[in-house]
Design goal:
Length: 294
């Protein structure tokens, strides 16, 4: 072997390292953080409404965030502008569902959420049909839910937001446990019921709004992860809030891997994978919970 060959640099490792840093790592970080945010929001929403069927996508938060974020995106807003719009839209949708539904009637709450989601989805479709071709392609691809375009700014924003939102929600675990006994019981145990409920609702809307604004519609993670945690660890909110984000991160990373692998080199939207997994899961859970809520 010639000495010069020993000094020759192989460009392949450098290229692989660049791909890892610029594509794989931000995508992995964004997927894990998005899953943690959605699972944290789902866990809090289920405890707040005392309904294991509640989930950001099923009670209108995702649809409201998507409509507002799509409008902002079509107007050329940047990452933070779209995120603010998504948060505001998710919160507005949740307030509408709460106005139409009933905290004490889980079935009515879910039905109200589905109705609001359908209405907002129709408005979103109307918005899409009115967009010019350039904006139409961007919004349509974004709505399907994907981490394919995740870059470091988005990944870091989600990675910073996930632990902050989780810590804020985790600080309410005692209240969420007390809330399982009813609002009256929580009040008599010394909790400021309305104030803490509002903070939980705001945090859940923020978490879902951030994910939808950055990654599009990724449904059912907030339903599956808390329920899996509940099956493993019981109904203590402290344990659920600790385990749900980890399970949510695992679900979204696994779904992203499936989206990249099933039809390689083509890629499926992550939202399609989570819906294919989550919809049967929701139907099974609905059937299982049905007699208790009848």
């Amino acid at each position: 072997m010639r000495p010069a060959s020993l000094l020759a640099l192989d460009p392949q490792p450098a290229l692989e390292w660049q791909l890892l840093l610029e594509l794989r790592l931000p995508r992995l970080l964004a997927a894990a953080s998005a899953g943690a945010l959605l699972a944290s929001a789902g866990c809090a929403v289920q405890a707040r409404f005392r309904n294991p069927l509640a989930e950001p996508g099923l009670i209108g938060i995702n649809s409201g965030a998507a409509l507002a974020a799509a409008l902002a995106l079509s107007l050329g807003a940047g990452l933070y502008g779209v995120a603010v719009a998504g948060f505001a839209g998710g919160l507005a949708a949740l307030l509408l569902v709460r106005l139409l539904g009933d905290d004490k009637d889980g079935n009515r709450l879910i039905l109200s959420g589905l109705a609001v989601s359908t209405l907002l989805g129709s408005l979103l479709t109307l918005l899409i049909t009115m967009l010019p071709d350039g904006s139409l392609r961007v919004v349509t691809f974004w709505l399907m839910g994907s981490f394919a375009s995740a870059e470091w700014p988005l990944a870091l924003a989600l990675a910073v937001s996930a632990p902050l939102v989780w810590l804020a929600l985790f600080s309410h675990w005692r209240f969420l446990n007390a809330l399982q006994l009813g609002e009256s019981a929580a009040f008599h145990l010394g909790f400021s019921v309305r104030g803490q409920e509002w903070r939980i609702v705001l945090l859940a809307a923020l978490a879902a709004g951030l994910v939808v604004s950055g990654c599009g519609m990724i449904g059912f993670v907030g339903l599956m992860a808390p329920h899996l945690a509940r099956q493993l660890l019981g109904s203590d909110s402290r344990r659920l809030l600790a385990a749900s984000p980890l399970l949510g991160a695992w679900l979204t990373v696994s779904a992203d891997w499936l989206a990249r692998s099933l039809l390689a080199p083509a890629e499926l939207p992550v939202g399609v994978i989570t819906s294919l997994l989550g919809a049967p899961f929701f139907l099974w859970l609905l059937r299982r919970q049905g007699p208790r809520h009848a």
